[in-house]
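Recall that a protein's primary structure is simply its ordered list of amino acids. Everything else, from secondary elements to tertiary packing, is in principle encoded there. The following example makes that idea concrete.
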Amino acid sequence: MMLASVVVLTRNRMKQLERCLDSLHAQTVRDFEVVIVDTGSTDGTLEWLKREKAALGIQLIEREGGSFANARKDGVAAAQGEWVAFLDDDCIAAADWLEWLGRVSARCDAIGGLALPARPLPLPSWWHAEMGWLVGWAVPGQLRRSTGNRFYPSTSNMAVRRGVLLRQPFQEIEAGFDDSGSVYKGGREDAELWRRLRRLGYRTQFIPEMIVYHDIP
């Protein structure tokens, strides 16, 4: 079985998606496939993918909108890899991104990596570092290799064993706090999944060396 299936959701982001796919073609390992889920592009992205999918070496799934959770479940259903690695279409994976997945996969069931800005972004004068948790950033010094007890990755950089996702699929959720009132999910099906996997005893880990670069406009 191949190491991983990389699932990328996209809609009307052809230029960003091209850069994302270029980064996957530059990976230091080759034991993976790419599954693109188009959720209703109208800017030519879907036509480009259909025309170039053989040359790009991708599997293409078409959807007409719908939730992120269901689109990702479609990607999981099509995946053949032992792991399903999620990457956003506006992210650029470091060349050793999947190599790091292979290095640590034996001891984990779910892995979250580090997402960094693709270019320096000046912060407004009123911004304080402690506000970072509101938008999924970490307070300086907080991010470190851990078992994932305080870390909630996003699907911009997350990998989960395919067998785990078949048993514990993404769920559609609304914005708000979890039942304990301690974790704000913000409508994030990825945070809900991570918390559920932890609660059920799956081995979760944050790997800071597993890096993607987010191309923030």
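The chain is about 30% helix and 25% strand. The longest helix spans residues 14-25.
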